[in-house]
Amino acid sequence: MYLARKDLRAARGRFALVGIVIGLIAFLATMLAGLANGLVDDGISGLRELPISHMAFAENSQAVFSRSILTEEELAAYQEVTDEATPVGASFFNARPADDSGDGEAIDIVLFGVDDDGFLADASEAGAAVDATRSLDGGLVLSHEFSDKAAVGDEFTIVGTDITLPVIGFTFSGTYGHVPIAYTSLSTWQDLLYGDDADGRFSAVAIGEGDETALEAAAGQSGTELLTKTEAYAGSPGYTAESATMTLIRGFLLVISALVVGAFFTVWTIQRTRQIGLLKALGASSGYIIRDALGQLLVVLIIAVTIGSAAAFGMGAIIGDEAPFNLSFGSVLWTAGILTFVGMAGSLVALRRITSVDPAISLTAGV
Questions:
Q1: Tally: H helices and E strands in the chain
Q2: pTM here?
Q3: What three-state secondary structure class fits 238?
Q4: Is 62 left (phi over 0), alpha (psi -120 to 50) or beta?
C-alpha cells in the first residue's frame, strides 16, 4: 500500500472527482432502496401486520381477494386441522360522510371483514381499538390516517350501497394496494358486497398457525390454494410490477457503478503503464502491483460509498411522511456492501493490463 498512499496524495484531485461520482451513485442507489422498501410497505403493510402464517384462496385466484370466493365448506376443511382458521372478506370501497353538508371529504378504503369470534379480531389492533362493549358489527374501525378527518361517532355512507356505518374506533391498520385498511365485521362486509345473497361467502381463509402437512392436506381436500403470508403479498394491486421495476432500476445502477469504476481503473492503469513497467524492472511481481492497486481502489470505494450512503440515510430522515420511504440501517449496509463488491468486480477488467505490462517499457521516454 506504500505506492497506493503516495498516489492518493499526489493525485488527490483526480481521486476526489472519481469519489464524488461513486458517492453520487451510492446516494442514488440507497435512496432507491428506501423508496423501493417504502413502496412495498405501502402496498402490503396491512397484510404484513396480520398475525397469520398462511392464507387460503380459491384456486387460480392468484392471491387476489376480488377473484377469490370461498364458503363455509372450504373453511371447515382448515378448521378441522387448526384452531386458528378464520374467514376474511376484503374489498375496495369509497366512503363519503353521511351528513348532507358536503363539507366532508370522501375516503378510499380497503374494507376487511373479520369474524367477531375469530383470532384476528382478538389479536389485531383493530379489535383492541373497539370499545369492549361493542363488536365490529355494523361499525367501522378506520386507519389512524383518518383520525384528523373523522371522529368516533361520525357516519360514512359506503358508495354504491347507500349503507351508512358509524366510526367506532381508529387503529394502525396499515395499507393494502396503497389504500388504508378499515375493519368491520364479516357479516357487515357481506351485506355491503352481496346484500341479501351473501350465502356465507367471503374472500379467503386466514390461518394463524398449523402443521404444514395438515394444512396442505386441507388445501387438497377443499380445492383451495394455500399460500404463505409472504406469497400472498403478490395479490396486492401493483405489488409485483412495482417490485420488478424497482429491482430493475437498482440492477441498472449496480451495472453503471461497475462500469464507472472499471473505466476509471482502466484509464488509471493505462496512465501508470510506464510506472508499472519500472516497478517490474525493479523486481516487483505482478501480484504485488495488483494488490497495491486493488487496495488503493478499495480505500476510494469505501470512503465514497460511506459518504454517499450516509447522505442518503440523512435525506431519508428528512423526507418523513412526504413519500413512501423506508430505509433501515441494515438496508443501508447491504446496499453499501453490494456497491463496494460490484465496484471491485468492475475493476477486474484492468487486471489483465497490469499483468501484461512489459518491464522493458520503463526504458522508453517519459518515465
A1: 13, 10
A2: 0.73
A3: coil
A4: left
